[in-house]
Amino acid sequence: MIHALTDFFPSRTVSLYMARSFLINTFAFLFGLVLILQTLDLLSESGRILAYPGNGDAQVWKYVGLRVPQIIATFLPFSVLLGTIVTFTTMNQNSEIIALKASGLSAHQVLAPLMIAGLGVAILSFSFNDRIVSRSSATLAAWKKVEYGPLPIDRGDRSNVWVREGTHLIHAMQIKGRADAAQLAGITIYERDGAVLKSLVRAKTGRREGDGWRVEGAERFDVESGTLTKLGSVVVARGVRPDQFTLANVDAESLSFGALSEAIDDLRAAGRPTKALEGALWHKLSGPLSSVLMPLLAAVAAFGIARSGKLFVRAVMGMGLGFLYFVADNFALAMGNLGAYPPFLAAWAPFLLFAMIGEAVLLKSEE
């Protein structure tokens, strides 16, 4: 079994040579793209960062440290595509593909080392996205909310959450805990009659009691009369569920795979829609796996060139197939967010479709 598997690949020396060339080209393109795009992004954002009093070079470099992981996650698949095309084009120019084919290797055997290297890149990409990108995205989003000012200490609590209760609006400065153990702090209830504000109820803390929330130290300000009434300990916001506070805003990009899966389970248990988040969860797997697909789509640049002499045209075709995949991937995700596609289909349909297209092009080229 192991012997048959190793026979599928070229020799160890050739496989390592192809994988090394592929990885060097891929990460060289990634470095160049990150450098250029981060510079352009910093030119547009540095004014806002330095506009906050006291900010300087340290805050600019902090922004770079938080933004670079996002750029890497976005453009790593593009770099894999470009790295594959350059690797195949170089091997064709040096007649190395012809030599491999003449030795009896099929097109799939020639591609095998690059696809295994692409799988390694996919695993690295998933781990990087899950461990680093999600945290940097969450921190950067919170930093932007405070206009690049000092960040509050993050203890895993939710802050600045708004909830609607009929025509009333409820604002909580901070929420700790989950489900019935959730505790609110800094509560303001905007009691309205239609669009007209009638009164404000403010309380220091609140906790779940029955179908409502018992708040402590409450007082009501009547807008029309201008009077302030002490309420003490009262139950408010009957019918408002804990998940409306704790899961008011779920940002898939800012959560790891496990945390997003837990948030989806909580939302589903509360009877709230989860289709868009389920699509994002599946895409956390299908997105990194595009690194395995890119060598297959770029294979058109590897075969048939000796006969046709159209190296540049075939390289452009491979690049076009790769970019069409990214367009289809974004389109499917958008349709999934709108509810037009099921979550699994929105995340995996482009991958499976272009895998079949790439295989068809590869077989045609081999003929």
How far apart, in Å, are the first and last alpha carbons? Answer: 29 Å
* Strand order in space, largest sheet: 1-2-3-4-5-6
Percentage of β-strand residues: 15-25%
The total beta strand count reads 6
- Overall pLDDT confidence: 84
Count up the domains: 2
Q: What order do the helices and strands follow?
A: HHHHHEEEEEEHHHHHH
Shape annotation: elongated
Number of helices: 11
Radius of gyration: 27 Å
User: How much helicity do the residues have?
Assistant: 55-70%
Low-confidence stretches: none
Helix/strand class: alpha+beta
Major sheet attributes: 6 strands, antiparallel
Describe what this molecule looks like in 3D.
Strands 1-2-3-4-5-6 form a six-stranded antiparallel sheet. The chain is of the alpha+beta class and 367 residues long. A hairpin with a 5-residue loop joins β5 (212-222) and β6. It folds into two domains: 2-148 and 276-366, no CATH class; 158-246, SH3 type barrels (Roll). It is 62% helix and 17% strand. It has helices spanning 2-8, 12-51, 57-93, 96-102, 107-145, 242-246, 257-269, 275-297, 305-308, 311-338, 343-366; strands spanning 158-165, 168-176, 183-193, 196-209, 212-222, 228-236.
Question: Would you spell out the secondary-structure blueprint of this structure?
Answer:
Blueprint: H1 2-8, H2 12-51, H3 57-93, H4 96-102, H5 107-145, E1 158-165, E2 168-176, E3 183-193, E4 196-209, E5 212-222, E6 228-236, H6 242-246, H7 257-269, H8 275-297, H9 305-308, H10 311-338, H11 343-366
Antiparallel strand pairs: 1-2, 2-3, 3-4, 4-5, 5-6
